[in-house]
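User: Hi! I'm working on a homework problem where we have to compare a predicted structure to a textbook description. Could you give me the structure for the chain below?
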Amino acid sequence: MRIIKNFFLTLILVSTLFAGQDLESAKIRLKDKEWDKAEEFLLKALNHPKDKWEAAFHLADKIYPRSQNWAKVKEYMDIASTASASAKIRPTPNDKKILMSQAVAASMTKSYNLIYYRASGFLGLLNKVSDPDKRNALIDQAIATSMQAKELDPSQPGAYALLGLYYSVKGDKENTFKYIDQALDLPDIPADVSLALLVSAGQSAVRLGDFDKGLGYYESALSVNPNEVSALKNLGALYLAKEDFESALIHLDSAIEQSEDDKEKVDLFFNRGLVYLNMKEFEEAEYNFEEAYFLAPDDKEALLGLAKALEQAERWRKSRTYYLELIDADPNNASYYYGVYRTYFGEGRLEDATEYLNKANALR
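Assistant: Happy to help. Predicted structure tokens:
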């Protein structure tokens, strides 16, 4: 019996020794960037009762993010999270030892941000694609990537906001509001994050044509911060779309007063110019388009707004000057030639008007 007992004690001791060697071997491979070998030894080290938490951490922190296997990242980080509260780890050979809980939190944030920024990057790609099939494929990829971020860390509101945004671009109203509501229902959201979520929710609602819901989100944002420029700006644009011009002006005026960003002011002056244009207050429209144009001389929309405001005020010559400037910038845009045509026609210069009408028709 004593022989058998000693055999098992020796077996346990040898097993413990080899398990420790597995973790050390894995660390050497990690340092040498031999990822496949490191993974092999780390998986073996999981069987060691003392090393499993550290092995799990390295798998989730260094191995599986490389292959973007986020399900494995979460699986092994969950194991690492079960270490005792006093457990410490050296995340890399150059780091000081820190609590495992701190290392896990930092690593999860790093992985989440990696997915989140990749998901948000699809916004720029979507703006460059006009082909419907390619655009739909990009939207699906964006949704899948945003879903990975949400599943990795369900407590982070950003992934829900992206899901709401991309589903709204897809035209899926049910899923848009499902994820928006889930984001807003998360506990302990800081005020600035809640504000950003509400503005994003309003934009998604308006994109889907649900103006009343969008209005509610923006108003909720202003209840958090009455001076939030993005909410005021979007409310102004929404009231403009609803042809409630007085309300549009109230919010755009307030946004202009609060904004210190010239780039943002370009949009604000432009939208206020549109409001006055719709109200047929052409001098006010001209002033606002001029302000937008002054802040952004390369902004074709501001210049076009200015040309249209002057045209509707029947200031033909000045309007034509801006249409011709637009033609110089983009000689293949038929709408600019039609603008010149209308100014000549308004002056009764039919021969000149016909010349630009023919040019415009040739570009159609």
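For your comparison, note the following. The CA atoms of residues 131 and 224 lie 40 Å apart. The domain at 111-225 is CATH 1.25.40.10 (Serine Threonine Protein Phosphatase 5, Tetratricopeptide repeat). Good luck with the assignment!
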